[in-house]
Amino acid sequence: LGSFLSTSPFRCILTTSGLKQLSLNMATRGKAFGDLAERQAKLDSKYDPQVEKLQVPFLERLSGEKFSGTFHDWLKSGVVLCKAMNAIHPGSCKNIHTGSMAFKQMENIAVFLKNLPNAGIRVEDGFQTADLFEGTNMYSVQVCIENVRRAHDAKAAGKPLPKVVTPAKVDLPANASKFGAAPADTRRAGVESHAKYAEKAEGAAYGDLAERMARLDSKYNPELEKELRGWIEAKTGLSLEADFQAALKDGTVLCALANAIQPGAIPKVNKSSLAFKQMENINNFLDFAGRAGVHANDLFQTVSLYEGSNMTQVLQTLDNLKRKQG
Fold it and tell me: How far, in Å, CA of 138 to CA of 156, rounded?
């Protein structure tokens, strides 16, 4: 079992939230999106179902929660992780949200990540909240949990913790692969190469994610973006940066647009760099758009803009709003 931290693409988002369901991150604007499936396949191919078999009983024991469904489904609400963290370091996660609201579930995950040092793990050795919530990088999630498991076991055995928890040896099942290399039968070529996340009952593969993302990106209309950019700039008096998603991401431009259409529509606009506050701006704009006559089915999801996961829908919402204004 080799070192994996040096090859794991993860960083921790300490404060993030989603007021609506999360989707995949959009590829960098201005680039072709053809490499998305390949990148996703590389991440998925590193996921090890055998290592998961060690992590499930570990988390069950600490959290008191019985495993059900897929590993992703079991963990995505953040409840299991928060309860496990409280077992490791009591009081770490003071308010654990048990509801079904995406915002609250992502807050649970963020609190778990923030408290990683209580488990002997550096914050920077965590994962992004979205990696778990939408299951877009379960390898990074697995790496983080494995770090937590090893640190906990070392502490229980009275052994000193290394500065960076990197596994050197582990008692894997006899048929386990090297951590970070999925068994051959979980790999497929092209889009279908997404590994199954060691699900219960061998189902629920995530292999269609990149395909769906590619379809969304292929529908993006640069000409419509140009038209809407001009409309927003004329309404608000602002000059938008070249990257349309980046220009709108924090929600301040959208709030300015709402207030230009209807003065005082959004009285409080957050200028914070915190993800939660920026997404609150977007959500406030969506509420305004709904009041302005845009049908609920034509509103994009908050994170579709924030994560850039469905900019086609963002264009459609803005176009609908523009047409409502005559």
Answer: 27
Give me the pLDDT at residue 6, please. 36
- What is the per-residue pLDDT across 263-281, written as a single tens digit (0 to 9) for each? 999 999 999 888 888 889 9
Q: Which residue has the tokens 């509103």?
A: 299
Distance, CA of 167 to CA of 49 (rounded, Å): 17
pLDDT of residue 195 exceeding 50: no
Alpha carbon distance 75, 68 (integer Å): 10
Closest CA to 26 of 266, 304, 294, 288: 304
**Amino acid of residue 116:** L
pLDDT in tens, 143-172: 889 889 988 988 888 877 644 433 333 344
Burial class (CB in 10 A: 0-12, 13-18, 19+), 223: exposed
Contact (Cβ atoms closer than 8 angstroms) between residue 275 and residue 13: yes
Q: Distance between CA atoms of 250 and 156, rounded to whole angstroms?
A: 44
Number of H helices, E strands in the chain: 14, 0
Is residue 26 within 8 A of residue 301, CB to CB? The reply is no
> What do you get for the CA distance between the two ends of the chain, in Å?
63
> Are the beta carbons of 20 and 302 closer than 8 angstroms?
yes
Torsion sign over Cα 20, 10, 161, 179: positive
DSSP 3-state of 295: coil
Q: Specify the length of the chain in residues.
A: 326
> Residue 226 CB: number of other CB atoms within 10 A?
11
